[in-house]
Design goal:
Blueprint lengths: L4 H17 L11 E2 L6 E7 L13 E9 L8 E5 L16 H16 L2 H10 L2 E12 L8 E6 L1 H12 L25 E4 L5 E2 L1 E2 L2 E11 L5 E11 L4 E2 L2 E2 L2 E2 L2 H4 L2 H5 L1 H5 L5 H12 L14 H4 L33 E3 L13 H6 L2
Parallel strand pairs: 1-6, 2-7
Antiparallel strand pairs: 2-5, 2-10, 3-4, 3-5, 5-6, 7-8, 9-12, 10-11, 11-15, 13-14
Helix pairs in contact: 2-3
Length: 360
């Protein structure tokens, strides 16, 4: 029997094109992530879904995590542990309770004091990374997503905006910047969400979030310009009532099925113990050596925690934390808040694709 490579390849090509048209080509992880398109405007209803098989209290999951691609692992090679600085976690929160942050801080200090390239690379590899997730119903937007219940993935700046508008908590400002004042009249609280009240009834009247995606051109070190996405977000000034999600009556019973349908808590709620983080540090960072131990040879570079020599592999994209994202500057109240990330380059002056894709 002869192997008809051309004929088989044609069929494979048709199959892959069909899968791509169905939204299943080249897609990994949760299939319900809303991907914002340039030149589009979105009107989103935020959903406060009841927790499922976890202790989540917040409507959104603002998560800091540490990850490592373990080429020697069987099964899932991306190893992730939750950082105790994550907003949605209770208990012993903060940098002081994270041994991985302690290691990353040591690498950062060494990279700034001695300009060690190795320390800089290790800091980037093991520092905490931010991802925000919240369930939404797409009220208006591109035709292919209108009427769908999805998960909005976002970065630190949108997280700061939501914390300001929902909880009345202003983001921390950098040294020399004026603190951002919170106007109590602008805090929406739970009225920014559709949710189930204490009596088990659906509350479907709320303020909708709007996100406008445009294109911005920024210069690079080599004298060229590159087009990057630019975001503006706001809440509608009037509340609206939604009685159906894509022709399905919005009842409390239906609302309670959405968490499982989206796989929201299952995929994005991570609660790691102190022992989990210690094991991560010992296996992937210090290889059993304590962060404060000294080699005794006076060599600062070799005194750093030394990672195990694993082969580098492409890993899932994670959103960079606020160390590399400037905090919003204080400004007079305006109808919209603009999101513009001016620094999309890495330390070599080249465009960092991760920042372009993930800074929402």
């Amino acid at each position: 029997m002869s192997f008809n490579a051309m004929g088989i390849f044609d069929k494979l090509q048709q199959r892959e094109q069909q899968r791509a048209s169905e939204g299943n080509g080249g897609s990994f992880g949760n299939k319900n992530i809303l991907k914002l398109q340039r030149g589009s405007k979105y009107q989103l209803r935020l959903l406060y879904l009841p927790p499922m098989n976890c202790d989540r209290m917040y409507p959104m999951i603002n998560s800091y995590s540490h990850s490592f691609w373990d080429d020697n692992a069987s099964g899932n090679k991306m190893k992730v542990v939750a950082c105790p600085t994550s907003q949605y976690l209770d208990g012993d929160r903060g940098f002081d309770n994270c041994v991985i942050c302690a290691c990353a801080s040591a690498y950062y200090k060494e990279s700034t004091e001695s300009h060690s390239k190795t320390a800089s690379e290790l800091y980037k590899k093991f520092k905490r990374n931010f991802n925000g997730y919240i369930p939404v119903y797409v009220v208006n937007g591109p035709e292919d997503v209108v009427g769908k219940v999805m998960i909005l993935r976002y970065g630190k700046q949108l997280a700061d905006f939501l914390n300001l508008k929902v909880f009345g908590v202003a983001p921390k400002t950098r040294k020399g910047e004026n603190p951002i004042e919170v106007d109590a009249d602008d805090v929406l609280g739970i009225s920014a969400f559709t949710y189930i009240d204490d009596d088990g009834n659906i509350v479907n009247k709320a303020y909708d979030l709007t996100i406008t995606v445009t294109t911005k051109s920024i210069p690079t070190d080599d004298g060229k310009n590159v087009d990057v996405p630019n975001y503006a977000f706001d809440f509608k000034r009037n509340q609206t009532t939604i009685t159906e999600f894509n022709d399905v009556e919005l009842t409390a019973e239906y609302f309670n099925t959405l968490n499982e349908e989206l796989s929201f808590d299952k995929d994005f709620y991570i609660n790691s113990s102190a022992a989990d983080r210690e094991n991560f540090k010992l296996k992937y960072i210090t290889a059993g050596e304590d962060i404060d131990s000294s080699t005794g040879n006076g060599d600062k570079e070799s005194a750093l925690p030394q990672p195990k020599p694993l082969v580098k592999k492409p890993a899932q994209t994670v959103i960079s934390d606020e160390v590399e994202q400037p905090a919003p500057k204080a400004k007079p109240a305006s109808p919209k808040t603009e999101i513009a990330e001016d620094d999309f380059t890495d330390e070599n002056g080249e465009i960092d694709v991760d920042k372009l894709l993930d800074n929402i």
